[in-house]
Amino acid sequence: MRFSLCNEVIRDLEFSAQCAFAQKAGYEGMEVAPFTLGENPHLIGTAERQQLRRAASDAGIEITSLHWLLVAPKGLSITTADPAVRKQTIEVMRRLVRLCADLGGKALVHGSPQQRNVGQNDDREEAWKRACECLAAAATEAQSEGVVYCIEPLSTRDTNLINSLTEASECLKAIDNPALQTMIDCCAAASSEDLPIPELIDRWMPQGIIAHFHVNDPNRRGPGQGDLAFAPILAALNRHKYTGIVGVEPFDYVPDGPSSAARAIGYLRGVLEK
Q1: pTM over 0.90
Q2: Domain ranges of the chain
Q3: Which of 7, 80, 83, 234 falls 20 to 30 Å from 227 in CA-CA distance?
Q4: Does 2-273 carry CATH code 3.30.420.40?
């Protein structure tokens, strides 16, 4: 497995400085939240894409993936009944797939809880169909670009659609495109799944649909800053010979972003060494 830092943790730094910091701290890659790149990240031009990719390469790391895909531009939704909004959302998703490929990334993680919520007065079954339509379009683009698009199960405190791996797997079956996969986020899984995370890995990893992994504590801080034991989790990933990306994604930066990021990778490397 390879560790990648979710760049919003240190977004106050220029991107080249983010890459240099991550490499020096011990990360192999950078997982980019598109909203940190501007208000319309899907419209970034060729020259800027090359510059971003070069900044990572010059620092000795790679851009591994994208996440938090639909925060910018504002007003996107995969469940809305408004066909114009949904059309725009699909276009942004497709363009972000191409952005990921251009940056050298191999996966996109579709979390974006607010942009997939089902409205209180919406028909849930119809909203589900609309979400699947959007995800199917993104998966088609991902297959064309040679990347994987992952739907991220999130807890019910964050969103009311796709809160478990079981629900995510139902979405995958409905769309039936190998470029559409799912992933495990430790913070979400600890509060929304019926099994402990190591057992969750044992259950789902053999099914070949887990293409990404996020490590964070249920208290929303980095690994090692809470009560969740990560040794059994990393052992389970090793047991299943997981060679993909493990993205470090704290939400509560204690005492600050850079310190949280540095402490997390030090803790994780220490666990692996033991």
Answers
A1: yes
A2: 2-273
A3: 7
A4: no
